[in-house]
Design brief:
68% of the residues lie in helices and 0% in strands. It has 423 residues and is mostly helical.
């Protein structure tokens, strides 16, 4: 398979053309998948079309309809490929029949050169038959347009291992005959949460990296937001899509204040809220209203409402902790989870004091999912510290230090331990 040039990476193309490639590639790939029913062929032809554009556009200029230019080039090359390989063409003919039976294409996006069929890629990449890690990898590969080495860096695995993972996922799609289509109205409620979970997992890794030298991986968080914007345009009536985008924007708004010049962690209470992104907060708040209006709330809408309360407060002391606890009660009913219960316990500690929060954390101590989950240990250590139970706090900090994945987190925990020894 041809590996396309990294959009915004190694190519010398000017920034406006980079933006065209980034925007058009996903739409082009989806249209080719819909036309030919084969992801490998679609990727190869999309890559060849972009490579051709890199040769011709600097000389001839960017065409008035770049998406149509890319699609025409890719389609011609695909036809040439099929003429040369009759066996491949025969296999694709069968796949195309199956794709045609799968249902109509996604709606056309106004003003676009191509039918915007990216919805079928969202749902194909996030199909429940695929392994969880494979879903995220395919989403970055197909929809974000990252090269395989770039996806490997995003998942912190060797490129060869990522290449095998992507090949495995494509093979699963082919052998399981996973259809390239948008689910029907009756299927959407069951399938959409999987798509949203893939995007939120990508964002979470960008907001709080699982390992590495930095606390945040802003490029990954911003790519997740860009994909969520696309999904929002494609599914404007889905309130949970609005909720997810709002949640991402409200959290990402704090990015510049979360670390110091040396990369050290700055806790929420110490952040310069003047550095928070006011435009993202305003947009996020508007999306919260969309997510919470017109029916029962969904989990992303509720989480976005919690994030909005944090962003609206002047400081930690004036944060509306009773309302945050109430929202966590709603969220816990919607998605019972030890992690949600952990976050609720921290909010209760801010509302009712550290003793009340610690009692709730102690009730969660036997939850398998929280074993080895260092945020739980950090939360427990912080509350023990506030209660003056310093030896226990130190023990919890040490356990968390052994589990922390990034260097800023480890440095922060070492500072907390040093502070305990000085007291």
């Amino acid at each position: 398979m041809v590996e396309e040039p990294a959009v915004g990476g190694v190519s010398p193309v000017a920034a406006p053309v980079e933006a065209i490639f980034r925007e058009e590639r996903g739409r082009l790939l989806a249209a080719l998948v819909r036309r030919f029913g084969d992801l490998d062929l679609a990727e190869d032809m999309a890559s060849e079309a972009i490579e051709a554009a890199l040769v011709h556009w600097p000389v001839d200029g960017v065409p008035p309809r770049p998406g149509a230019w890319l699609m025409t080039t890719a389609r011609r090359r695909a036809v040439d490929r099929l003429r040369r390989d009759q066996a491949y063409a025969a296999r694709l003919a069968v796949l195309q029949v199956e794709a045609d039976r799968a249902g109509p294409a996604a709606p056309v996006e106004s003003g676009s050169d191509l039918p915007d069929e990216r919805l079928l890629l969202f749902f194909t990449c996030a199909h429940p038959a695929l392994a969880a890690d494979d879903r995220g990898a395919l989403t970055l590969r197909c929809l974000a347009g990252l090269t395989t080495p770039e996806v490997a860096r995003a998942f912190l695995v060797p490129p060869a291992a990522m290449a095998k993972r992507i090949v495995r996922a494509k093979k699963k799609i082919r052998e399981a005959r996973i259809p390239f289509r948008v689910p029907g109205v009756d299927e959407l409620p069951q399938r959409l949460p999987g798509v949203l979970q893939v995007l939120y997992s990508l964002f979470t890794e960008g907001y709080a990296a699982s390992s590495g030298p930095d606390l945040q991986r802003l490029d990954l968080a911003e790519e997740a937001i860009r994909l969520a914007r696309i999904l929002r345009r494609l599914l404007p009536a889905e309130r949970e899509v609005a909720g997810l985008l709002g949640l991402m924007l409200l959290i990402h708004a704090r990015r510049d204040a979360r670390t110091g010049p040396d990369g050290a962690i700055v806790l929420l209470d110490d952040q310069d809220r003047g550095r928070w992104d006011a435009a993202s907060i305003e947009e996020g708040r508007g999306l919260v209203l969309v997510a919470l209006t017109g029916g029962p709330p969904g989990p992303y809408g509720v989480q976005a409402a919690i994030a909005a309360l944090h962003d609206e407060a002047a400081d930690l002391a004036t944060t509306d902790w009773p309302q945050i606890v109430a929202l966590y009660d709603v969220l816990l009913a919607l998605t019972p989870s030890p992690v949600v219960a952990l976050n609720r316990a921290v909010a209760v500690a801010m509302r009712d004091g550290p003793r009340a929060g610690l009692a709730l954390l102690d009730e969660l101590a036997d939850q398998p999912r929280l074993r080895g989950y260092h945020p739980y240990l950090v939360a427990r250590a912080d509350l023990l510290c506030r209660l003056g139970r310093l030896p226990e706090a130190a023990a919890a900090y040490r356990q968390a230090l052994d589990l922390a994945g990034t260097e800023p987190e480890r440095a922060h925990l070492r500072r907390r331990l040093d502070g305990l020894r000085l007291s």
